[in-house]
Prior knowledge:
Blueprint: H1 2-43, E1 55-60, E2 69-74, E3 77-83, H2 86-94, E4 124-128, E5 139-141, E6 145-146, E7 154-155, E8 158-160, E9 167-168, E10 193-195, E11 200-204
Antiparallel strand pairs: 1-11, 2-3, 3-4, 5-8, 6-7, 8-9, 10-11
Amino acid sequence: MSSDKFSQSDDQLVTIKRRKNLLILFLFLFVIVIIFMWTVFSGYSDSSTVKKKDYLLRFNLAELVPGEVRIIQHKGLPVVVMHREQQDLKQLLAIRSGLMDPDSNKSAQPTFAKNYHRSLKPEYFIAYAVNPLSGADINYRLESYQHNLKKERLWYGGFSEKRTGYLYDKAGRIYKQNGSDNTPRYNLYIPNYKVTANNQLYVYTLKELDFD
């Protein structure tokens, strides 16, 4: 009788020990899963494939209302972000004759921006707000006026250089200039960037600026 009691007690101890080991194993696996999930989602943002270390600037494009422009100073690089309206896109097609490089064949941009609106999404324009050669600051000018070279040459607002008077349209394409100045001039520089499904803009770091 006493032997049976000891046997039952031993069985109970084994069962308790097994349960304890299973609980420890379960907790261990649970911690592993949590660590894995944290690693994945902390390294990536907004279900994108952009790692934090790979981008220079992050901006929520949804903050911009149509027609709004922001120039963001980030680590010494002024980045212009514009939300263009449909009228802006139509005007880009109407001013080709007044541009030096309307198709951006001589200018720098990623493959996805080799189009008349020079952007990944037509409504959003992203560029560096500096002259590609001299580094002179570029300012945004809203007003439209008749260009002084020819009456038929219109400038519907866009960007300008205060020092030189150079004009750019709302795709960063530079206008032809008056006189015999043969100084090389290029459209504004478009960096590599990504826009996620929920309109998060990521502008890549200098290391990532090599084009496709």
